Fold:
Amino acid sequence: MISKSRRGRLLAVAAVAALTLGAAACGSDDSSQPAAGGESSAASGPITITLQTFGGGKNFGYKEAVDKWNAEHTDIKIKYDNLTDQFEQVYWPQMIQWLQSGAGAGDVVGIDEGGMGLAKAHPEWWADLGEFGLQNRQSDFAAWKWENGVTADGKLFALGTDVGGMSLCYRRDLFEKAGLPSDRDEVSKLWPTWDDFIAVGKKFQSKVKDTKFVDGTNTLYNVVLVQEAAKNGNVSYFDKDNNLIVDKNPAVKTAYDFAQKISQEGLTAKLRNFTPEWNTGMKKSQFATLGCPSWMLGVVSGDGGAGPDFKGKWDVAAVPGGGGNWGGSWLAVPKQSKHPKEAAQVLDYLTGKDAQVSVFNYAGNMPSNLQAQQDPAVQGAKNEYFNDAPVGDIFAKSASALQPVFLGVKHAQVKNAIESVVSAIDDGSVPYANGWQKLVDDAVKAAG
Amino acid sequence: MTKLILAITIVISAFPLYYMIVIASRTNTEATDMPPPLLPGGKLGENIRSVLANPDAHYLTGLTNSLIVAATVTVSVVVISTLAGFAFARLNFKGGKILLLLVLLTMMVPLQQMGIVPLYRLMVNLEWVGSIKAVILPYLLNGFGVFLMTQYTEQAVPNELVEAARVDGASTLRIWWNVILPAVRPGMGVLGINTFMLNWNEFMWPLIVLTPDNPTVQVAINSLNAKYGTDYVLIFSGTLMSILPLIVVFIAFGRQIIGGLMEGAVKA
Amino acid sequence: MSLHVDAGQPTRTPIPPSRRRAHPRSGRSFLTWLDLKAAPYLLISPYYLLFLAFGLFPLGFTLYYSFFDYDLTGTVEWTGLGNYTAMLGDASFWKAVVNTLAMFVIATVPQILLALLLANALNKRMKAQLFVRMGVLLPLVTSVVAVAVVFTQLYGRDWGVINWILSWFGVDPIDWKAERVPSWIAIATMVDWRWTGYNAIIFLAGMQTIPKDLYEAASIDGASRRRQFWQITIPMLRPTMIFVVLNSTIGGLTLFSEPTTFYNGNVHGGTDSQFQTVSMFVFEQGFREFDYGYASAAAWLLFLLILIGSAINFLLIRRIGGNK
Structure:
């Protein structure tokens, strides 16, 4: 009675059922494991500390420091997990969700400056680093960098990793092609102001057709914003009482206007930063300059960015408008970590002098650790990838003088909304004429 | 004309999969060449080895998890639906009509999307975030399955058959096992395939409730994509490997799957 | 089909139902009585228990949450219908609604027509029948995110195959992620690629149940093949059509995976939410902005949208079948 096809089907069902049962039997152990932290019974094997970060290219630059730790330690291993390029859009909301739900966050997690306001407002998310003796690290940091890692009720929860600093990266070979000087000092002299920068851009664009002068609107928008913020009381989207001041702060309008201008002048490759298209744009020489806080050097030189094929073709010049501090991150230990003591130990190491010097030499992120900043290996450093640019001179000399821009509790959310608009005027989906109003409206909504 | 339509269809069906192989067998530089590469290169083995060696690529876990989740959900939904379908189609009981109407109403509700906030908070309270239990249980509820099996039982099992068994003294459960199940098997087949496939491709809820180191296959590919945005070779080798098991099953059981799908679709 | 009642059954003497009901006190017939009365409820109970836990509970709480205003900083405030009134005036919500409907129409209409055409072609005698059917069904056994990743690459602005092909015809590169209508088309093709073959197989199954003599009679009356298709096949397929259309309606109006992957896993759906769907909007409000109340209100409006969409489709299909 049983037809051939029916028997086959029965067989299939049986196979699936058997597979399921088998898989469920060995899978149940997996699923009951805590999501992060690689729990293993204390007696057997080393403890694994998961380090979660974000960023393009070499991101936090910890690769060599982590390799070194893992080679030297048998009891505690670090698992370095860079989750995504995008902080505001992907990493931070996901992290907030994990911190709230009590599962998913690593043992040590990176937080961008834009997330620190919210992180400080939620002391219940974090382990107290003071319990593990990290209070004694205070002298390693500038006052503002230290204080930002302390919650309102005085709990130390985060230590600084890098600081921003500011420069402008450019492609030597493409500048030569455009008949522009390619030496970094001469290039720096080309653009004391942003108006000069645009003038150089037009000259470049008239000579070179298949490469645009800048990546898109977003990167330089942020550069100008921090420069202007410094002139306006060091505030950007929020005042120090956490009121949204996007429409009142002239720094925002100036930065927006500049972004609009470079787009209107046709100098942008219309690539939004930290997207795959943007990264591919570096590999395909789609743009010739890039606003470069210190950590951007690692983004460019990393495999995900321009990568090894472009070694020696990039260089670092002074930024128009002089200085600025964009970005810089902290490391914290979430309360949900199963091994807070070991995590704090790892955090201590990663923010310490040796690891930070290694980060600077490997990726380029400027240490916020003062001892590392003073270290001759940092002060005198040249970056081979960037045509031996004296990055020690460029970033380290001014690092201790950097001032923070105040960022509100919802800075990351507002920044995300605003940057969407700044990119949208560039890719043409929002007309220039409506851009500013939409930026203000969306910022209000995101802060709401 | 007919042949042309079918040929074009098959080419279009296969092209994205073919393109996956093309990129997975090349280098990253070639992947973004212009004009784009259209023939496979020689690096498939090498690329797949590098995916396997990559500690961040959790899609082996993802594949196992997806298989456990989809199979568990499928088996449960089919059983629950045949039980209820039998009751609604062939047993008389008070409130039956109204209860069936309720099923029809819930069929329209995309529960896992609509109830996403409370479901998430429920999982947080149960401490199931990051565990595959969280992506199994909500999916056991499937109004479409009950509806389908009710329809199917009505068509496939004459009332007299049930009555005859009843007269022979068989209990309700025994009737279900000996009379209903053999008769509605094609319906179970189509429901099973449907459920498995939809569950396998579920993305929004797992994305919220699972964590990167214990993902389903969709979440695993998404994380790989987020981490290695421009490493096309790695991503494409990963996606290729993630769909391979299903394709193998499909080729092995294609006759049964298509037969079951068609047989089941007709009567429901 | 024969009955296989267990031989171990102590008695095969049929007990008339009326007698069983008359003597509920005697042990065995009490069990039988209980079996008759309680078993149906027992059989449906798994479904309804699940319905309580994962249906009614979330729906009720979604409604409850939608009356509150949640904030990232942890404050929760009663706002009554505030979320709903705010949403009715929220341009980004309506944008998501328009995007969803547009993509649904762009995807579903050609998909159903193509599936019918394909089913009609498959319904003829041919060699390698199984191979052809498997080829048509192939997209179904892939993973949605994997496929979206491939399509995203194909639709690249600068390095994508599709723009390259279009350039042969003198078309300037299209920025598929920035321009609204092209982004809809790109996503609709991903949806269609996955579902057209499946629907064709379902239609094919329906077509094979249509009695041959209907066509023979029509041929004798001199009706052309085309006429037969529209006059016989389509009306006879009505039940299958309802199944397919309802399925695509629910699937289409809750679209999430393809557009999210198209923007690298970001639920904003483009710089200006060009292709953000309502599901993505719910996700963004709930799990990017952490405004659980607003997300819950949006979820209810999504439900409303699906109800209206399904009702309209249902009526439309009834009309199609009605003029046979």
Notes: Confidence is low (pLDDT under 50) at residues 1-42 of chain A. The two ends of chain A are 68 Å apart (CA to CA). Residues 301 and 307 of chain A are 5 Å apart (CA to CA). Residues 4-32 of chain A form the longest helix (29 residues).
